[in-house]
Write a structure and sequence with these properties.
Elements: H1 4-18, E1 23-25, H2 44-54, E2 58-60, H3 67-74, E3 81-83, H4 91-94, H5 98-105, E4 111-113, H6 124-128, E5 135-137, H7 139-153, E6 159-163, H8 168-171, H9 175-179, E7 184-187, H10 189-198, H11 211-214, E8 223-224, E9 229-232, E10 241-244, E11 254-258, H12 260-271, E12 275-279, H13 292-303, E13 307-311, H14 313-321, E14 330-331, H15 336-342, H16 348-351
Parallel strand pairs: 1-3, 2-3, 4-5, 6-7, 6-12, 7-8, 12-13, 13-14
Antiparallel strand pairs: 9-10, 9-11
Length: about 350
């Protein structure tokens, strides 16, 4: 559906080919859970896309470990490229199984991590393999570290962070550490809805029990929550759409976007930012009528004077859909990894490389 991350890793692949390396690519797609998912989540289309973008032949192998794969790789010539099948077809990948990592390490002499988007996950391919092979980073990962480090080492206040999206459990833990680093933290999407619900400001039933926000101080002047929202009595947003204050949201209503007053207030903060990062849409952007708030925020960032960074699949897709990517200083390949890096929490996959 989107080749953004593929394009970003091409410089590393091309450099390795230029140096006459035999390049064995490992990666994942989605979260396959059943055998019938194998065709849906196969990386074969990725091999074809890399081939088209790079102009180099890419051989696809339908597995990622085992003697057969080892034999195929042993036949490779200098400058050839092979892409292995989805690592997540093996549950040992996400379980960070030591034997699985060791089996992967048998396929190469050197490991290069160029997958910033999973550097916050202790998976076998990125946290386990470096324990068995000489290891380093690729050009994509080098660039991500250099750009994001500017936020931490050379901040230009006011620093503004925007967090939205639907991955509440993943992102909630970053609110408190980020509040210590930024001048303004703007919340939207389900993460804002969760905070409002936990504090009994909104009655929207998200059924969340998030320890990370139980002691969150809503009076912190750095924290900004929506003051008005777009709601509907139908979860698909097909009936009774209205603008409401969070405290007016009824139990049978769903929050689908930030309201116009919130969009205007957030935009004013954004326009003054010296540096800004954005992760997660502020509404259900897959439907145009609930993408208004996120579009207002995207345009405010694009028109502002601040050094701007955006990350996360849905955020990047939304920015590209509205042709605003060239207006951002940096589009990150990572979502959760970006937030964790900016929170100055350890990324295990970088630590192991040290």
């Amino acid at each position: 559906m989107d080749d953004f991350r593929i394009k970003r890793t091409l410089p590393t692949i091309k450099e390795l080919v230029k140096q006459e390396a035999r390049v064995v690519l490992i990666s994942h797609s989605g979260r396959p859970t059943r055998d019938e998912d194998r065709q849906k989540y196969s990386l074969k289309p990725v091999a074809l896309r890399i081939e088209k973008l790079s102009g180099k032949k890419v051989k696809f192998l339908d597995d990622c470990i085992g003697k057969r794969i080892e034999n195929e790789i042993s036949k490779m010539r200098k400058g050839e490229i092979v892409l292995l099948e989805n690592l997540r077809f093996y549950e040992e990948e996400e379980n960070n199984n030591k034997d699985f990592a060791k089996n992967l390490s048998r396929l190469a002499d050197i490991f290069i991590n160029d997958a910033f988007a999973v550097c916050h996950r202790a998976h076998a391919s990125v946290e386990g393999v470096p324990k068995f092979l000489p290891s380093g980073i690729g050009l994509l990962l080098e660039n991500e570290i250099e750009v994001l480090s500017q936020f931490l080492e050379n901040p230009r206040p006011p620093l503004v962070g925007i967090i939205g999206g639907a991955k509440v459990s993943t992102k909630m833990k970053f609110i408190k550490p980020l509040l210590k680093k930024v001048n303004h933290l703007l919340l939207g999407g389900k993460i804002a809805n969760a905070v409002l619900e936990m504090k009994a400001i909104s009655l929207e039933r998200l059924l969340l029990k998030e320890e990370a926000i139980k002691d969150l101080d809503l009076t912190n002047p750095r924290l900004h929550l929506p003051t008005d929202v777009i709601v509907s009595s139908d979860i698909k947003g097909e009936a009774c759409i209205r603008v409401a204050e969070p405290g007016e949201v009824r139990k049978d209503e769903t929050i689908l976007d930030i309201g116009p007053r919130t969009a205007e207030a957030f935009s004013e903060i954004i326009k003054q930012a010296g540096m800004i990062f954005w992760n997660g849409p502020l509404g259900r952007t897959e439907e145009e009528r609930f993408a208004v708030g996120s579009l207002a925020i995207a345009k405010a960032i694009a028109q502002g004077r601040g050094f701007s960074i955006a990350g996360g699949n849905n955020t990047v897709a939304f920015i590209k859909e509205n042709r605003l990517q060239d207006q951002f200083a940096h589009i990150s390949t990572g979502g959760g990894a970006m937030l964790q890096f900016l929170s100055e929490e350890r990324l295990l996959c970088l630590e192991v490389l040290k």
